[in-house]
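Iron-only hydrogenase system regulator
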Amino acid sequence: MEQTRVAILAIVVENPAHAEQLNQILHQYRQYIIGRMGIPYDKRGISLISVAVDAPTGIISAMSGKIGMLDGITAKAVYSKL
């Protein structure tokens, strides 16, 4: 079994038109997702999403990269040191 890491993906959605594509990507990687929380921030017209994952680093990078390529959506991964 490949070594996995625990990480949080911080996602900022500034263009809700691509939310469906974001959900498709998250669904594609569902086996690695521990949990997720989304917070709509209507005052600024954005949504903030955190996704906890336990996956190989290559998978986390691929997921973050695919999400970050969506127009109006930013994603960054923060890894546990353990």
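thats it. Helices lie at 19-28, 57-68. The beta strands are 5-13, 33-41, 46-55, 73-79. bye
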